[in-house]
Amino acid sequence: MDADVNNTSSSRKPDIPHETIDLQIADVLAAVRYPANKDTIVDAARDAGASNEVLTMLDGLPEQDYADIDAVTRWVAGNYGPGLGI
Question: Which pTM does this prediction carry?
Answer without folding.
Answer: 0.73
